[in-house]
Amino acid sequence: MESLRWAQTASLVILQLKVKKMGFALWSLAESGLREIYYRKIEKGDIELDEENSETPLYTGRV
Fold first, then answer.
1. Is residue 57 included in any domain, yes or no?
2. Looking at the domain assignment, is residue 44 inside a domain?
3. 21 to each of 26, 45, 53, how far by Cα in Å?
């Protein structure tokens, strides 16, 4: 009975790890897609970088 409980706990832990891994993969995919959209908008001129702080984008309002 104890070994069955251990096996159930182990399978639950494995399932949780798989779900976390899948969630991370989906997050990474979404982040890379958003990054690609962001860089395309910079190339088109829809977003300009602030000269004082190149990390801060300024949205020009053009679509």
1. yes
2. yes
3. 9, 36, 35
Residue 63 pLDDT level (bands cut at 50, 70, 90):
very low
Q: Please name the residues in contact with 38: beta carbons below 8 A apart, sequence gap of 6 or more.
A: 47, 57
Let me know if residue 35 belongs to a domain. yes
Residue 45 has phi, psi (to 5 degrees) of 95, 5
Domain count within the chain: 1
Any domain includes 2: no
Range of the domain at 37: 25-63
| pLDDT mean over 10-27 | 89
pLDDT in tens, 21-61: 888 888 888 888 888 888 888 788 877 766 665 555 555 55
